[in-house]
Design a protein that fits this description.
This protein has helices spanning 3-22, 31-34, 118-131, 168-187, 254-265, 287-292, 297-313, 339-346, 391-394, 474-490, and strands at 53-61, 74-75, 85-86, 91-98, 105-111, 137-144, 150-151, 190-200, 205-207, 217-225, 232-237, 249-250, 270-275, 282-284, 319-320, 325-335, 354-356, 363-374, 379-383, 387-388, 423-427, 436-437, 455-456, 462-463. The chain is an alpha+beta fold. Strands 1, 4, 5, 6, 8, 10, 11, 13 and 15 form a nine-stranded mixed sheet that branches. Strands 16, 17, 18, 19 and 21 form a five-stranded mixed sheet that branches. The protein is globular. The two termini are 38 Å apart.
Length: 492
């Protein structure tokens, strides 16, 4: 171990020990308690098919109307950025899907926010389950679209670093809106057929950190009801929703205009957007111009969403999926190595569920992973609680020469190698927001102020993303836990 590595580890450990030793017992919980409202899905996966699909859609607005008399903070870029207006509404959009095999339905809900903790997600699950208005359901999944123009839903963008930017009334309304959208999706369900298609999206994405690798596909699901009413569209695409730049206007960013394009051009349709593996960072092609504010950000954002909507509508190579939906989830614990995030939890800026490890001076963050298959091994979906670097999905890691730590990445399997399904993708920021999930061979901390100041490697590359990660081990734990989950589903 070099002096540099030793010094970094020592400084992190010293600060962490101090924080943890002074945290009251009320800050901690257990894995069992953190998993209370997580539905685990199917015990074993089955290839038996149902008679037909059942699907429903629901949505609910949670944009505050009193922003002119009350301070709310925009989340995603700078802190202390009060809302000054509304460009478009923030929604909770939900889809209920059932293969009618008798095991129960599945819910996916997308929230127009930068991120949301699993603790808040479990509050939504609790509202839904205790309402008594949902039938047999085996999995409830809630994702963030990752808009950087939404209202602070995590607490990190308040007036001061030590003061949470979360507003309790807004947060409660967000949870109620999500629960209502989910309930409506169940109550509006219809029988019909379910299709999947995908297409490469050319020249619209950028990766601003090496290795330059990302999912170039836009994946679209389409539910067509037997009664010939409007279709339901589910879209997955990987890009930071940050195209408005440092705005003070509330907006769902490009996903809102992707959805608008679909709903205005497909009669009586509804649509929902789920983000992908966006660590790295994966964003829009002209994102550096957005950062520099050298283009009309609003026009660019709207046009970007419109183009994606047109691409989604234009997919013709659909595969009709048999009514087979297998899904499984499990609770996990990742080491809380980021001293800044743990301190933020200590002073109640963040509200993630955390626990003590066997080493009393260490903490872990409780989260979850999930895996879903649709059709007859047609589609695999990895449910990942944060912003995954795409190389952890596709295996396209930096070489020993080009990585910050000048070593090869060492993982048993990447996500794409864990399944033999024909089409596979990541649903990111799903059921938690753990921040960036990086490959360990390119994970580099600042020598003197790790997790506070960003590092620069010996190739003069910026390592900003590490400051917004839970730690170096998170990627390995997510891969190992997901592989274990899939093996258990097939009893391997």
């Amino acid at each position: 171990m070099s002096f540099k590595d030793s010094f970094t580890k020592k400084s992190v450990n010293t600060l962490m020990k101090f924080i943890v030793s002074t945290m009251p017992a009320g800050c901690f919980t257990t894995q069992e308690s953190a998993d209370e409202f997580m539905l685990t899905g199917d015990d074993k996966f089955s290839s038996a098919s149902g008679e037909k699909w059942t699907c429903g859609f629901g949505k609910s607005v949670f944009t505050p109307t009193d922003y002119d008399s009350k301070i709310y903070y925009i989340a995603g870029y700078d802190s202390n950025n009060p809302v000054k207006g509304v460009l478009d509404n923030l929604y909770a959009r939900a889809v209920y899907l059932d293969d009618n095999r008798g095991f129960g339905g599945v819910v996916f809900c997308a929230l127009d926010c930068v991120g949301i903790s699993r603790k808040d997600i479990n509050d939504i699950r609790k509202l839904v389950l205790e309402s008594g208005r949902l039938g047999k359901v085996k999995s409830i999944n809630i994702c963030s679209t990752h808009t950087h123009a939404g209202i602070d839903s995590q607490g990190l963008w308040g007036e001061k670093l030590y003061k949470s930017g979360r507003d309790k009334v807004f947060t409660d309304n967000l949870k109620k809106a999500a629960a209502q959208a989910i309930i409506t999706s169940y109550e509006s369900r219809k029988d019909g057929r379910f299709f999947m298609g995908y297409t490469p999206v050319e020249d619209m994405q950028a990766d601003v950190r090496t290795p330059e690798t990302y999912d170039k596909n836009l994946t679209r699901f389409r539910f067509s009801p037997d009664d010939k009413s409007g279709d339901i569209y589910i879209v997955n695409f990987a890009s930071h929703a940050e195209l408005l730049g440092t705005t003070s206007l509330v907006s769902a960013d490009f996903p809102a205009y992707l959805i608008k394009e679909i709903e205005e051009n497909a009669p009586d349709s509804n649509a929902v957007f789920f983000n992908g593996a966006i660590g790295g960072m994966i964003s829009a092609k002209e994102i550096k111009k957005v950062y520099r504010d050298s283009i009309d950000c609003e026009a660019y954002m709207k046009d970007f969403g419109k183009q994606l909507g047109e691409i989604a509508l234009g997919i013709e190579n659909e595969t009709e999926l048999k009514p087979i939906l297998n899904i499984k989830s499990k609770g996990i614990a990742v080491p809380g190595e980021n001293t800044v995030l743990i301190l933020a939890r200590y002073i109640k800026v963040l509200n993630n569920d955390i626990g003590r490890t066997k080493k009393r001076s260490r903490v872990c963050i409780f989260s979850e992973v999930g895996y879903m298959e649709l059709g007859d091994k047609d589609v695999a979906v990895f449910l990942i609680p944060g912003e995954l670097f795409p190389e952890l999905f596709n295996g396209e890691f930096l070489t020993e020469k080009d990585s910050a730590n000048h070593r090869l990445a060492s993982y048993k399997k990447v996500l794409a190698d864990m399944t033999d399904c024909k089409h596979k993708f990541v649903m990111g920021l799903c059921n938690d927001e753990l921040g960036y999930i990086l490959a360990e061979n390119d994970f580099l901390l600042n020598e003197t102020l790790p997790y506070i100041n960003k590092a620069t490697d010996d190739m003069n590359r910026d390592h900003y993303e590490e400051t917004n990660s839970t730690g170096c081990e998170t990627g390995k734990i997510l891969l190992d836990e997901t592989e274990s989950l899939i093996k258990s589903a097939y009893n391997k």
